[in-house]
Structure formats: C-alpha cells, structure tokens
Amino acid sequence: MACAQGRLCHLIVVRLANNFPNGFEGSAEVIVNSSVQILSLASNHFQGPFPNQPRFINLLNARNNSFTGNIPVSTCNRSSFMLLILSYNNFTGPIPQCLSNFRIVKLRKNNLEGSIPDMFYVGASIQTLDIGYNRLTGKLPRSLLNCSFLQFLSVESNGIKDIFPFWLKALPTLQVLTLSSNKFYGLISPSGQGYLGFPELQILDISHNKFDGSLPLNYFVNWKALSLKRNEDGNIYMVYNKEAYKNVYYVYEDVIDLQNKGRFMEQAKVLTSYAAIDFSGNRFEGQISESIGILKALIALNLSNNAFTGQIPLSLENLTELESLDLSRNNLSGTIPEGLGSLSFLAYINVFNNQIKGEIPQGTQITGQSKSSFEGNAGLCGLPLEKSCFAPQTQQPKDEEEEEEEKVLNKYRICSWSVIWIGNSKTHCFIQTGVVGQNYWS
C-alpha cells in the first residue's frame, strides 16, 4: 500500500531518550497518523501539554520531562496501548478512567489530583500500577480485586484515607505493595478476616501512616512467597522487566522508595529476589510476632518508631539473609538475642531508644556498628558502646549511723609506739616503730 503524504507508514520504533529536545515542530497529524508503535521520549527537556499519541501506539515512555496539563483523553482511545510511562513530569488533573486497558501504568511523581478511578473490570490485564507521589485522595478502589494479574501496586506519598486493604490478599500474583506516607488507619489484621497471608508478596511498605493495634503471634504464617530466589552462583541480580511486542523487547523498571540500612533511597530497579517489610512510623503495640522468623528471605526489616513491647524475638536468628534490622524508638526490653551476632549479612542494626539491657552480642557485624545505634538503653553494655559489662562495682555509700560511728572512732584513736634502746658506753640511740592513725597528742 502506498504511503499517503506526510505519513510515516513503515516507522515502528522511535527512541529519542536522553537527548535535549524541548518541543515539537510541524503538524501534530504527522505523529497521530504515523505507524509508530513504540515511542520513547524519556529523559529530555520536553515542556507544555502532551501531544496526541500515534494511532497504533503500543508502548509509550515519556518519563522525566516537564510535560504539563492533563493527561490527554486520547490516551483512552488507543485500543492497542499496553505500556504507559509518564512518571516524573508535571501533569495535573485526574487520572484517566481507562487504567484497565493497560498492562503497565506508571504515573509516579506528578501533581495528579482526585481519587483513583474505581473502574477496574473483571479480567483486567494490568500488572503494574504506580501512582505514588501525587496528590490523590479518597480510598483504594475495591475493583482492584478484579485485577488478578496485578503484581506491583504503589500509592505511596498521597493523601489516601482508608483502612488496611486486607482484601488484596486475594490477588494471586501481588508481589509489591507500598502504602507509605498516606492516611491509612486502624488494624492491619481485622478480626474475623483470618490470616493476612499474601501468597506472593515480597515487599510490603506501610510506613508513616496511622495503623495501630498488635500483631497476632501467627501473623506471618501464610506469607508463603517470601523465599529467596538466587542465581546458580549464589549472587543476587537486578532484574529488568520486559514487554514484548511483535518480537521487539522494551525494557522498563519498577521503582520504589525504601528505607534500608538507615537511609531513605529510591530503588531504581526492583529486585525480583528482594524481600522487605517496613512497618515504621505507625502506632503498633504489643509484642513483635515470633512468626517473623518464618520469613527467611527477608533482607530488610524496619519496625522503628512504634510502641512495640516485650523482648526481641529469638526467631530473628533464623533470618540468615537479613542485611538491615531497625527496631529503634520502641519500648522493647530484655536482651539482644545472641544469634544476631552471627548473621553474616547483617550490615545494619539499630535498637536506639528502647529499654534493652545486658551485653551486646559480640560479632564482626555488630561490633562494627555505630554506637549511636545502641544508645538510649540504660542497661546495655559492651562494644561498640564505651560502657563495659565488667566494670568494677562502686562501693556502696554508708548510711548516716555508720558515718557517725566512724567519726567517734577517729577522734579517740591513739598512736601505738614501741621504743627499742640500743646502747653502749659511748652512744645511746633508739628506734621508734609504730602505727600512726591521726595526730592527736592531747
């Protein structure tokens, strides 16, 4: 078929990423009527409203620009659309009503407002939904239950006010759930709902909300998917996700923000073998569930800034892959489990500001920590703290009666002397020996 004038009939893939264009010239119809199916405009200087997309667009990545205005309505009119990445721009207005049409939706770090559309239909193919760092309000749409292929859900840093979405445990493939820095509240395991039991979950971040209550002792029993996936040589590799379309592979990254080893950082590439739980900055109380020790794949565990009480679970010794453990700013008591000192991957531990006592377990991974990680525990001793566990005991102060008796004895203490004379006809000399208490002579 001959090409009409102004149409790019055979151009399928356009990659303009990491260049310096800041706008478009010519008629917008050239783009709309082109045969382009994969378009990458990522990491440029584009500004202003976003142009209409090619009619047969399948994969679109325009992240990290300065696009403004609403996301075009035409986005919902492209039946072949699978991947939409518009993160790190300045888009405003509502989220499009057609999210169910896509497989990958990434709208992270814009200025989108309103509620999340409750428009997910049964059999929706969406796998990744990242709408973190916007100005969204309202509740999580219950129609997300229809998204049986959903693997990645991030709504972090918005204004969503809702109870914990325990109903998401029904999603059979959900691997990453981040709800941090919103207005979620209440219990995270309501009575009558059974075990939480996310079957495939590997990363759960619910930090900096208003969750409260205690964790049941068997809370983590059915978290079956937290098993480490390693390559044959034992190393962990960062894995990119790939979308294939007509034998063309397009690589994209799932991005989340995690607090790990005491630092808050954006993870630009989510590891398929990475496992993390972050409950920090809430109002949890009671004992830390012993069932946490079942999650042997955990790499990062953060329970800081809560009101947990009781002892540090001995079952933490079973977390042989653990690299980061933050229990700071709670009301924990007892001692630090000895076995934590032998966890070979534990690069960061923080128990600051609790009521822990006894000797800090000695091991290369622990004694190399900053002493600030152990401060705020009056009864704690040993390296890296300067307080020794073997310091000599100080003499107990005497009471007033004992001090008065001591004064009387000192007043009447006398000197004891013995005099030995040694003499002959020409000399007389003597040696004085004795024990002198105080110099009282009268």
From TrEMBL:
Signal peptide bounds: none
Keyword set, alphabetical order: Cell membrane, Glycoprotein, Leucine-rich repeat, Membrane, Receptor, Repeat, Transmembrane, Transmembrane helix
Gene3D superfamilies documented for this protein: Ribonuclease Inhibitor
Entry GO CC: plasma membrane
Top-rank taxon, per record: Eukaryota
Coiled coil feature spans: none
InterPro entries per the UniProt record, alphabetical: Leu-rich_rpt (IPR001611), LRR_dom_sf (IPR032675)
Name assigned to this protein: Receptor like protein 27
Organism: Cardamine amara subsp. amara
Family in the record: Belongs to the RLP family.
Cellular localisation: Cell membrane
Origin organism lineage: Eukaryota, Viridiplantae, Streptophyta, Embryophyta, Tracheophyta
SUPFAM superfamilies per the UniProt record, alphabetical: L domain-like
Chief location of this protein within or outside the cell: membrane
Membrane topology: Single-pass type I membrane protein
